[in-house]
Amino acid sequence: MKASHPAPPVLPHPAEARSAFAAFLVHPLPVFGLSVTPQQLIFSLAVLVCVSPLGSPPLALLLGLVVALVVGNPFLSLSRRVTSKLLQWSVIGLGFGMNAQAAVQAGREGLLFTVASISTTLVLGYFVGRWLKLNPKTTHLIASGTAICGGSAIAAVGPVLRADESQMSVALGAVFILNSIALFVFPMLGHELHMSQNQFGLWCAIAIHDTSSVVGAASHYGDQALQIATTVKLARALWIIPVALGTAFLFKTPGAKVKLPYFILGFIGAMLLNTYVPALQPLAPVAVKLAKIGLTLTLFLIGAGLSAQVLRSVGVRPFVQALLLWVVISVTSLYAILHTVS
What are the transmembrane regions (predicted)? Predict the structure, then answer.
């Protein structure tokens, strides 16, 4: 008589498991008398971690990425509207921790690096784009984002170019991926190379795209690095104006409107108040603390705005262009800073 063996368990098909998990995430649950989905609950818990003492810029970005790719962002349209405003107010708040004389010195020291890196990146971006046979508008968007200040530059130059949504998405996606890498890699490299606070702050401002990632990486390195990086990066962001005007001329875009980064004026105003109005100085640490929390939350929202669709939209050739430009500007600026800045 043959021994009978129990039938092996039938495992659910991966597609069915994903479908069941997705259905669970959006199924309302009663929580303290409110109807909340698990997706909303996970998102809210991640936000609480970011604004708690445990939060840090790298952790916030990582949590945002996990939320976006694993459970999804239940407040995607709202978070996209809030992100840029939160970043701008956070940068203004950081101005209350700056001294005007030190900022002028840092800006003067970074001016030559800024001019050289912006012009080199734009020219190199043009030739790399032609070599890779990329669309000229996508090429210019990626080069502008790398040269100046990432997503802010792309958002300003895109309308001047009359770029369509797919071209904007490709450029923003490529820049975002490299920003995420820089936020984790740059502080490690800075410590490994024994870079001073001055050197690291300057390097961040030149070689990292977005202001959010620049400030996040620099704040992780030290307060002096944060002050230098913020000042030089915002001075660099002002180059949006001449680059956008030059774009309108080169691409023959009649009636193009240039969006000015007005929040930089708020940062300068906060810095001047902190330097020349002693009565406000006791409030400065509170403003800076809130600004750092706001920046950490900004990085979480940026990470939570990513999706698999955004990653797929980038494509190989645009990413190669962005990566080549980033590596060139990072390595050359690092070499120059280590040999000329103490």
Answer: 21-47, 59-79, 110-129, 141-161, 167-188, 234-251, 263-284, 290-311, 323-341
